[in-house]
Amino acid sequence: MAAKVLFSPRAEADLESIGDFIALDDRPTAVRFVRTFRERSLSLEELPERGVPFGKGTRALVVGSYLILYQVRQDEAQQLVVIAAVVHASRVRKRPSPA
């Protein structure tokens, strides 16, 4: 059974902010980035453990120069992937540990 992917309000705001910033220079690139980001995030439905461990209970998936930070949880009916934040890799002090 596929996991359900949910975006936290912070992740939605992060993605919107990144898209707006990219759009200042190139709107089509911003649209492609946001689309690619959402597709990569939704791909976690099939392989939720795919990202590398990134601290207590958090995993990271790379999309370009950005990291999708997420947690995998289990509710009573199914597995959930909660996208917690989107950050530029250069702004992260702790690097993902090898899997």
Provide an overview of this structure.
With 99 residues, the protein is α+β, with helices and mostly antiparallel strands. It has one domain: YaeB-like fold (2-Layer Sandwich), CATH 3.30.2310.20. The chain has 2 helices and 5 strands; from the N terminus they run βααββββ. The chain has helices at 9-23, 27-42; strands spanning 4-7, 52-53, 59-63, 66-74, 79-88. Strands 1-5-4-3-2 form a 5-stranded mixed sheet. A hairpin with a 2-residue loop joins strand 3 and strand 4 (66-74). Helix 1 (9-23) runs antiparallel to helix 2. The two termini are 24 Å apart. 22% of the residues are buried. The model has no long low-confidence stretch (mean pLDDT 89).
CATH superfamily heading? RelE-like
* Helical content band: 25-40%
CATH topology type: YaeB-like fold
Q: Which oligomerization state do the chains in this entry correspond to?
A: single chain
Could you say how many structural domains there are in total? 1
What distinguishing features does this structure have?
99 residues; alpha+beta; YaeB-like fold; 5-stranded mixed beta sheet; 5 strands; 30% strand
Could you write a compact summary of the structure shown?
This protein is of the alpha+beta class and 99 residues long. The chain contains 2 helices and 5 strands. The chain has helices at 9-23, 27-42; strands at 4-7, 52-53, 59-63, 66-74, 79-88.
List the helices and strands and how they pair.
Elements: E1 4-7, H1 9-23, H2 27-42, E2 52-53, E3 59-63, E4 66-74, E5 79-88
Parallel strand pairs: 1-5
Antiparallel strand pairs: 2-3, 3-4, 4-5
